[in-house]
Write a structure and sequence with these properties.
The complex is a heterodimer. By secondary structure, chain A is of the alpha/beta class. Chain A has six helices and 15 strands. In chain A, α2 links the parallel β6 and β7. In chain A, α3 (about 95-110) crosses α4 (about 130-140). The radius of gyration of chain A is 21 Å and the shape is globular. The relative contact order of chain A is 0.18. Chain B has two domains: about 5-170, Rossmann fold (3-Layer(aba) Sandwich); about 190-310, Rossmann fold. In chain B, the strands form three sheets. In chain B, strands 9-8-7-10-6-1-4-5-11 form a nine-stranded mixed beta sheet, sandwiched between helices. A five-stranded parallel beta sheet of chain B has the order 14-13-15-16-17. Chain B contains eight helices and 17 strands. By secondary structure, chain B is α/β, with parallel strands linked by helices. Classes of the chains: A alpha/beta, B alpha/beta. Chains A and B meet through α3, α4, β9, β10 and β11 of A and α3, α4, β7, β8 and β9 of B. β11 (about 170-175) of chain A pairs antiparallel with β12 (about 175-185) of chain B. The structure holds flavin-adenine dinucleotide. Flavin-adenine dinucleotide sits at the interface of chains B and A. Flavin-adenine dinucleotide (FAD) sits at the interface of chains B and A.
């Protein structure tokens, strides 16, 4: 089975203080470290495992600026055969535009595949949309929140989808298809610096995003960026560490969970 | 006719409570509300909708993006295009929403958690919930939305009269994707939903080797140890201990969260706890918006200090 897997370079914002600049027109990410989207890491691993089992290949695809080559090299280090970068300087906030670019790219370049994997969502925009839009445009079936692939047959796959509260559903889906891979589906392999260095020697092709822009027009737009609304603020326990911990134990006593 | 089409979220005979949020945003939008659901017996207050369209098909057929698209085409050919198609931001809701967006070439905004009526703008979280984007559709016509659970339910109300009920008789079923079966979570002896006091750890603990020390702290505090999704994904703790939309919903007397940022999928699983205490080194972590008490500090230091005090 030959697989395409999308991988995205995202800002690691979990521990960063973010500033909105330009009168709400932009978010300053210049000091934020970037990394591979966590969900894509699971998607790449799953694709590589399936290719290893069924004797196919994995091609990693990224949309982004030149720096995104980094996540392609990472995917190759994990076992992808090669990587394609669809180069776009600006951040694309409309998942419809990303999907249209890929749709045009796959058709124009005549790229063959048995399945396309994406991560469930990207950490930065949390849209969880590109895979589904793309599947519909390609006219192939789609399943999201895939937490297990139980069988890979000639013309179909058996996938387990995660629902709410621990429940899952098993679905049969014909190939080619698009699957959005959920975190926890596997244990992504460790990628060493050496591995990435070796991967640098494998050719990655770069394509100009502008060449695949037909019908890739924004259907939604960001008017401006704002900070989240402040809800009921927490009572902050402050002081020396010892002091803070004693206050914390005081709260636990007051709530009756600790004597 | 200006209307909003709400796609019901149903699962194994239950009309999910999250449907109040899709209805709530409709109330804010001021549109006629048309609910689309499978024609099966569900218990809910029908009088909150103007029209209910029941599709004569199985629930699992309805919950499949390839089939729901065809059902909606029938609704549109009968009633014209809706201004909005609204779904919950759940596993199946978001799946169907984005597939339809691709199929019908419609704009989609997912995980909407706020609406500004005057400016006609939808709020959607970005960057670990630290920033929100104000979104609008840049074209005329139907826009697809998925809404975050808990965001709009306060706006629902009953209608003056009972809903009109219509039926869709023939639903075509896709062969390209079919339902096989439900898979239940394995039963385990630990039930975090029963605990009065949860010590919950997140990705902030850094690695698996830290777990025994948090277990020890939980032991000293007589708390039960639970975790956020990444901790379970990485197999640092078993699945039965996961708090959140895809894990357990918990309501302990005290929820002590250490190294958890406060993503909405986590918050949804613990926000109704009597008392939430959050420890995080990032003063801007969204979890402080939901906590009753907060400590900005290194969790390992807090853990070690607590252990010292408790042991001494
Ligand atoms: C469909 C779907 C379902 C999901 N279901 C769930 C679910 O059921 N439950 C769930 O939890 N998530 C769920 N998620 C994932 C969710 O979106 C978040 O990714 C996740 O909750 C983040 O977990 P976290 O807070 O532990 O990690 P992060 O967001 O990475 O946060 C780590 C935090 O630790 C802090 N930190 C780091 N080091 C230290 C230190 N030394 N001292 C103090 N603080 C420190 C950081 O400041 C940061 O705030 C789901 C996602 C999707 C798409």
């Amino acid at each position: 089975m030959n697989l395409l897997v999308f991988t995205k370079r995202v800002p690691a914002t979990q521990e960063e203080e973010l500033r909105i600049v330009d009168d709400g027109k932009a978010v300053d990410l210049s000091k934020v470290p970037f990394k591979v989207n966590d969900w894509d890491n699971y998607a790449v691993e799953e694709a590589v495992q399936i290719a290893e089992k069924t004797g196919g290949t994995v091609t990693a695809i990224s949309i982004g600026d030149k720096e995104s080559d980094e996540v392609l090299r990472r995917a190759i280090a994990m076992g992808a055969k090669d990587g394609f970068l669809i180069e776009k300087e600006e951040i694309l906030h409309d998942p419809g535009v990303r999907a249209a670019l890929v749709n045009n790219f796959l058709k124009k370049e005549g790229i063959a595949y048995d399945a396309i994997f994406t991560g469930v969502q990207s950490e930065d925009d949390q849209f969880a949309a590109v895979g589904g839009i793309l599947a519909a445009k390609l006219g192939i079936p789609y399943a999201s929140m895939v937490i297990g692939i139980d069988a890979v047959e000639k013309d179909h796959l058996i996938a387990r989808r995660e629902l709410e509260g621990g429940l899952q559903e098993r679905v049969k889906i014909t190939s080619p298809c698009v699957l959005a891979i959920q975190s926890g589906i596997n244990e992504p392999r460790y990628v060493s610096i050496m591995g990435i260095r070796k991967a640098s020697k494998v050719e990655r092709k770069t394509y100009k995003g502008a060449d695949y822009s037909e019908n890739a027009n924004n259907s939604i737009e960001v008017v401006r960026w704002v900070y989240p609304p402040k809800k009921g603020a927490a009572t902050m326990l402050t002081g020396e560490l010892d002091e803070v911990c004693k206050q914390l134990l005081g709260v636990l006593k007051e709530k009756g969970v600790y004597q | 006719m200006s209307y909003a089409l709400i796609i019901a979220e149903v699962r194994r005979g239950v009309f999910e409570e999250r449907n109040l949020d899709t209805l709530g945003i409709c109330a804010l939008l001021g549109k006629e509300t048309v609910l689309l659901m499978p024609d099966k017996p569900y218990t809910f207050n029908e009088n909150m909708y103007d029209t209910i369209i029941k599709a004569k098909t199985e629930e699992e057929v309805f919950l499949n993006p390839l089939n729901i698209a065809g059902i909606i085409e029938q609704v549109i050919s009968a009633r014209g295009k809706p201004d909005f198609i609204i779904l919950t931001h759940s596993s199946s809701g978001s799946e169907s929403a984005v597939y339809m967006a691709g199929l019908f070439s419609l704009p989609v905004v997912t995980d909407v958690s706020g609406y500004d009526k005057e400016r006609n703008i939808f709020f959607k979280s970005y960057y670990s919930d630290k920033i929100f984007g104000e979104f609008k559709s840049s074209q005329e016509g139907t826009c697809i939305l998925t809404v975050r659970s808990g965001s709009f339910k306060e706006f629902v109300g009953e209608k003056a009269s009972a809903p009109k009920v219509e039926f869709i008789e023939n639903v075509s079923v896709s062969e390209a994707r079919t339902f096989v079966e439900y898979v239940e979570e394995e039963k385990t002896d630990i039930d975090i939903t029963k605990a009065e006091f949860l010590l919950s750890v997140g990705r902030g603990i850094g690695n698996k080797d830290e777990i025994p020390d948090y277990e020890a702290l939980a032991g000293l505090l007589k708390a039960v140890l639970s975790g956020s999704r990444p901790v379970i994904d990485k197999l640092w703790l078993p699945k039965a201990r996961q708090v959140g939309t895809s894990g357990k919903t918990v309501k302990p007397k005290v929820y002590l969260a250490m190294g958890i940022s406060g993503a909405f999928q986590h918050i949804a699983g613990m926000k109704d706890s009597d008392c939430i205490i959050a420890v995080n080194k990032d003063a801007e972590a969204p979890i402080f918006q939901y906590a009753h008490f907060g400590i900005v500090a290194d969790i390992h230091k807090v853990r070690d200090k607590l252990k010292n005090i408790l042991a001494g």
